[in-house]
Amino acid sequence: CREKWHDLASGEVPIEHIFGIGADEYEMYLDLAPRANGSLSSYRNWENFAFIGLPTTSVGGWNRAYEHSRGKIVIQLSDDMEPSASDWDLAVINGFGGIDNLDKPLVLGVGVPNFGGPYQGDGLLTLAICTRAYTAQRGYFIYPEYFGLWEDNDMTQTATINDCLIDAYDLIFYHQWHGGDRDSQRDVTYIRQNGRASNQIGSALITLRKWAGYPDITISPRRWPPAWNARSERLGPPCFPVEGYAWLRERIIREMDEIYH
Q1: 40 φ/ψ angles, rounded to the nearest 5 degrees
Q2: How far apart are CA 130 and CA 172, in angstroms?
Q3: What is this structure's pTM?
Q4: pLDDT tens digits for range 135-162
């Protein structure tokens, strides 16, 4: 994956590729720990590695990698995502309107055949590409309470209502997802990202965040500000009770700990 992205880049723009390593990926830990002087915590100081705590989720990985990154453009990446053509890095910069726009809070809507943009008919941002200025404004890269599902719906709606979304859906990236093949890549990491728990959390969370108007990172569904009682009186209570979401999240995390650890 890393080689494809670097090989198809122009070579004119500095690129960093940060690997997120989960706390439950023991084999990778054992391989890398000697080079980290036997301390797993020292991964946090490595330029190209980001340590993900428990519960290990894809969203946790993207956010930890983002915290270690330095570029003005942030791209969400999995090992089944790849560019469709050479010089993709220059195309992304041009999609934002040039280097001068990279200090503005912007999100780039790109085309992912069969998974997002005009191909899915809903403009869904299945490959998140945004400026660091946007993440600074929101206080996060991917909203951190998601596990793996529904986070793209959240980013799409948040960027849209904040008037930060740029239409660049003619810029194509591929997502070689294996979800349709039940016998392919069904490891623990895949199940955690795409399984029942991830869907339950995501569905409940986006229901609450939609009701709340997709607030920034300072406001969590687990601790709505008291002033929002007026919002509840005006709009009616959220379809999914706040107390129910907090309970569901804690229960699922406990289940994940028991299953995977």
Answers
A1: -65, -30
A2: 16
A3: 0.79
A4: 999 999 999 888 888 999 999 999 999 9
